[in-house]
Amino acid sequence: MNRIAVLFIAVFALVSVASAEWKEKVLYSFQGIPDGAYPAGGVVFDQAGNLYGATTYGGAKDCISITQCGTVYQLTPPAKQGDPWKETVLHIFRFVGNQNDGDGPVGGVTLDTSGNLYGTTAYGGTGNCQLFGSRVGCGTVYEVTPPKKKGGKWTEKVLYSFQGGTDGYFPWDDLTWDSAGNLYGATQFGGGYGSCDAPYYQYCGTIFEISPPTVKGGNWKEQVLYAFKSGKDGAAPNGGLVFDSKGALYGTTYYGGDTADNCNGGNAFVGCGTVFELKPATANGRTWTEKILLHFKTDASMGGNPAAGVVFGENGDLYGTTSWGGQGFLPSGTVFRLRPINRGRTWSETLLYNFAADLEETRLWRA
Amino acid sequence: MAGVIFNSKGSLYGTASIGGSAFGGTVFQLAAPNAGELVWSYTVFYSFSKAPDGTAPQADLIFDRAGNLYSTTLYGGTGTGCGYGGCGTVFELQP
C-alpha cells in the first residue's frame, strides 16, 4: 500500500514542481577512509571562501561500529573556475587509538574570528558513558586550530569532556556564539531530571554554556543553563540555538511538552516536542528561566518532533521545521511560524507549509 | 535535521531529506506572501536522486555572496568506501 502511494506521489510531484530547477554541482564526494563519511551538519565559509564541516563516520580505519570516529574537513575552492574543489582532512577523531579524543560529530563546525573551528562530538572524551557494555565516552566540545605556519598541521584539542551526569551527555548539533565569546549548545541526555530513555540513558537533556579560560592556558568551563524535565517540559533538545537582541536563547526539543502526547516516541519518551525560550540570569539570580512557547500535540496536525533549531524573521517571529506531522494524506513534516502576542506572553503558531499538502512524500528527517 | 534560513528578500530556504521527484530529498523555497496575501509559495529548487548527485540532505543551507546555496547530503555521491549508497557529499546549487 505504501509503495503504491509513493508511486502516485512521484507523479504528482513531477507535475507540481516542474520549473525552477537550480543547477546542482557536487563539490566533494566523501570516500570514507581517510576523508570521512556521512557529513554531520552543514558547511560554513571562512573569509577566504573555504568551506568547513564535520563528518560523523569515517576517517580512522580502525573504527568499530559503536564508536564512529569522524573527521573535520576543509574544502578549498579551485583557482580556476570549473576545476575541482580540494578536500583537506583537518582532524581525524581517534577514540579507538586515543580514548580521550572526541568521537562521532553530530553537527557542523562554527568559526571564531581567528579562524579556529569549534564543534561537538556525541561520543568520546574522558566520560564513562557506556553503550552495549563498552565505554564510548559522553561526548566532547572540541577546537581545531589552524597551523601557525602555512602548510603546517591543524591541531585539535578537546575543550570539554562531558561526564554523563548533571553536566549532560551526548551533545548534539551546532554550537552558537554569544557576543562575549562563549559557546552554547545542547546535550540529548543528562542534566539530572526526568527518566526519558531509562534504563539505557539518564535524564532528559541540557542546554549548556562553555566559556573560554580566563587565564592563558587555563581550561574552558562548562555550565548547564537548563536541564529539561520532560513531562510538561521539553526533552532531548536540539542544538542550533539562537539569541534574541536581549540575550535570551531559543530552541526546540524533539520530545516532551505533555505526557499525554506521543508522536514518534517509543521507549520512555513522551511528548511531541517543544519550542522553548531561556531568559538569561538576572544580576541577582544565577539561574536561567525557561518557558515553553509551544508544545506539539499527538495528532501532530500542527507539526511534531522538531529536529532543528528556529530562526528569527522580521518582527521577532520565530520560524522552524518539524520532522513529523502536518495535515493531509501523508503527514511528513512542516514549516511553522511562531508569532509573539502581547509582548511574548503567548505565542501563536501558523503552519506555513506541510509536506503532505501536495501529496509529496517529503520529510524533514532527523538523523 | 535541517531548519530554514532566510534570504535577503524574506523568503525561506530549507532541505527535506526524502521525497521529491527523484526520492532523494529536496532543496525548497517558501517565498513570503505578497502584500495583502497570506499563503507562502512553495517551490522545489532541486530534487536529489541517488549517487552521484547526493541523497538525503539533512543540514541547513548557507548562501554565498553571489546567491548560490551550499550544504551537505548524508548519503550519495561517488564514494565507494561506505558500501551501497555513497558516503555523502558537499554540494552547491546555482540559480
- The share of residues in helices of chain A is under 10%
Distance between the termini of chain B: 24 Å
Strand content of chain A: 35-45%
Overall structural class of chain B, as computed from helix and strand content, comes to: mainly beta
User: How many strands in all of chain A?
Assistant: 26
Please give the oligomerization state of what you see: heterodimer
The arrangement of helices and strands of chain A along the chain is: HEEEEEEEEEEEEEEEEEEEEEEEEEE
Protein described:
The complex is a heterodimer of chains A (367) and B (95). Chain A has 367 residues and is mainly beta. Helix content of chain A is 4%, strand content 39%. In chain A, strands 2, 3, 4, 5 and 6 form a 5-stranded antiparallel sheet that branches. The longest helix of chain A is centred in the first third of the chain and has 15 residues, at 2-16. The radius of gyration of chain A is 21 Å and the shape is globular. By secondary structure, chain B is mostly beta strands. Chain B has one domain (4-93). In chain B, a hairpin with a 5-residue loop joins strand 6 (62-63) and strand 7 (69-75). At the A-B interface, helix 1, strand 1, strand 2, strand 3 and strand 4 of A face strand 1, strand 2, strand 3, strand 4 and strand 7 of B. Strand 1 (23-29) of chain A pairs antiparallel with strand 8 (89-94) of chain B.
